[in-house]
Specification:
cyclic-guanylate-specific phosphodiesterase; binds magnesium ion; 45% helix; binds ligand C2E; globular; 8-stranded mixed β-barrel
Length: 282
């Protein structure tokens, strides 16, 4: 194919690099405007109790609705937002939207619905992170237990004493702390005892090949049992099939999230959707 186009491998490689650099530049140049021009939107994906099917919470997932390019998913811009530091103001904005949605659902009589936001390690370089989260909770008048933070393994393991102190202060505010993408980063589990984590989210990569992959099933059931021994709640992400759901229920996984139940949806769609769920506390 290279020959047919009259290009050699080096040319193809250089072009690919240029395309990547070009895309990064596009994101850098547009993301700042995206925040001020209301191009960003937070979508919400329900998390369900696997025992009762009731809603237990939501995960806030960022979307970028670019006027020409359409919907851009976070995998395509979060890393640039991190590199440029834009994730700091964007993250605060996401936190506020999440608090408002929980308040809105309560106001609609749908009960207390916990909302989780994702925090990337870069956000912990902001010395004001804890103060700004506390201020947002206060301004939006959201009880702290209704906000959950999804943290990465690398934050806790590679983080400085300073990040660990920030995590402890966030916990002390009364927030719920979850370990996101569990199992993808590290082989040592001992850190689970050292940090004030409440929830483990088993990464989708362990769920997606259930029930075909015996190893994934062993790992998943072992992680659930271990988490329960440590008094942690377990969430399985990326549930797409009835067979996966049956396996997770059989192994007493507490909570599930995935396309089988819902894709991430806008707050407007969410409210419509929730009219069909009986909610905790409602
Ligand atoms: P994550 O926190 O692990 O979020 C789960 C991802 O899996 C989401 O992708 C969600 O849409 C997707 N997902 C959920 N259920 C299924 C399923 O059944 N099948 C499949 N194939 N996928 C499923 P999304 O929304 O593209 O987000 C990707 C990542 O971007 C997130 O992974 C998170 O790390 C990051 N992210 C998203 N929003 C934010 C944010 O506001 N701040 C930060 N710092 N990171 C964010
Ligand atoms: Mg997450
Ligand atoms: Mg995850
Ligand atoms: Mg992930």
């Amino acid at each position: 194919k290279a020959k047919a186009n009259g290009k050699n491998q080096v040319q193809i490689f250089t072009e690919a690099l240029n395309a990547e650099a070009h895309y990064k530049l596009f994101v850098e140049n547009n993301l700042r405007r995206a925040l001020t021009q209301n191009e960003l939107e937070v979508y919400y994906q329900p998390k369900l109790c696997l025992k009762t099917g009731q809603l237990t919470g939501l995960e806030a997932l960022l979307r970028w609705l670019h006027p020409e390019k359409g919907m851009i998913n976070p995998d395509q811009f979060i890393s640039v937002a991190e590199e440029t530091g834009l994730i700091i103001p964007i993250g605060k904005w996401v936190a506020r939207q999440a608090c408002r949605v929980s308040q809105e659902l309560a106001a609609l009589g749908m009960g207390e619905v916990q909302v989780a936001i994702n925090l990337s390690p870069k956000q912990f370089t902001d010395p004001d992170l804890v103060g700004s989260i506390a201020a947002i909770l206060d301004e939006e008048q959201l009880p702290p237990h209704l906000l959950e933070l999804e943290l990465t393994e690398s934050l806790l393991l590679e983080g400085t004493d300073d990040t660990r102190q920030q995590v402890a202060r966030l916990k002390a505010l009364g927030l719920t702390l979850a370990m996101d993408d569990f199992g993808t980063g590290y082989s040592s589990l001992s850190y689970l005892k050292k940090f004030p984590i409440d929830v483990i989210k088993i990464d989708r990569s362990f769920i997606k090949d259930i029930p075909e992959n015996q190893d994934d099933m062993e790992i998943t059931s072992a992680v659930i049992a271990m988490a329960h021994n440590l008094k942690l709640k377990v969430v399985a992400e990326g549930i797409e099939t009835a067979a996966q759901l049956a396996f997770l229920r059989r192994h007493k996984c507490d909570v599930g999230q995935g396309y089988l139940f819902d894709r991430p949806i806008s707050s407007r769609e969410l409210i419509e959707r929730l009219r069909r769920y009986p909610c905790r506390g409602a």
